[in-house]
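Lecture 7 notes: from sequence to structure.

We start with a single chain of 314 residues. Read the sequence below before looking at the structure.
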Amino acid sequence: MKPTNLFKASVLIILLGLIISCEQNNGPKGFDKMFTDYATPSQSFTVNASVNSTIVGSRGTIINIPANSFTGPGGIVSGNVTFNLTEVYDKSEMLFNQRPTVSYGIPLISGGVINISASQNGQQLSLANDIFALMPVTNTSVTANTDMEVFAWITNDSLPESNGYWNPTGDSANAGGSWSYDGNAYTGIYYEVQFDNMSWINCDAFYNQTPSSDIEAIGPDGYSASNTRVFAIFNNLNSCIELQYGWWCSNSFCTQNIPVGTGYSIAAIHYDEASDSFSSSITTGLSVGASGNQTTLNFSTTTIAQFNSAVSAL
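Now the structure, written as tokens:
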């Protein structure tokens, strides 16, 4: 007996449903989904590698690329190159791009973070010459910080790329209001950074005033590094850091070297794998004291979008 058309159609519908379900279930979940969905999108530009080029990002970052700056397996590259730029200037963006502003345990005040890369015909390129970036001071503060330095994101090949850290390159970030590239004048207050490697670059100053103290966040039983992320977001600084679970504090989240008197908020998010759902705890109006800086986390049901909105408002 041959199957009827109705039977065939029913089987097809079931199979399509299973395929769609598998595709949905195989997508990123939990924190992977949070950081994938809310990472700052990259901007793409086409530049001629053989001539001087200047591009301007949507947040006002100006990148100057001297001629013959790109190199590939065959040497210096000519012709069109795809150049990618990611601009991260806000504290919430730093959190969702997994680029907290801390270096060797000391918090940083950020003048902005950028990520650059270049490719030709799918082949990733390197730099043969230094290139320059102007980062608008107005994106992060009104007054330029003269202590700014250039930091590079350093990673360990055996760990996820997000498990890196900011390392000072030893180069200062010049602050000024008059710049000229390729005969074009750029007015406004910018930090100028110079770099010889395409990666994540941060324009920062160490925030290591004394005296300093520790801060700690205490979650419910079972809330640990495997299912909870906790961040300190500073009120009047362009800075946010992630608290580490069980670092020096048993069964809680903590960090050190925060200057006394610093105003901050605690933003925590918990993922429950069994129900594939999130809850969050937002505590504002905190100030670092000489001791006793403990915050009890009280979680309530949330979505990634709601958590993003809450963090962006801090």
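Residues 5-25 form the longest helix (21 residues). Keep this in mind for problem set 3.
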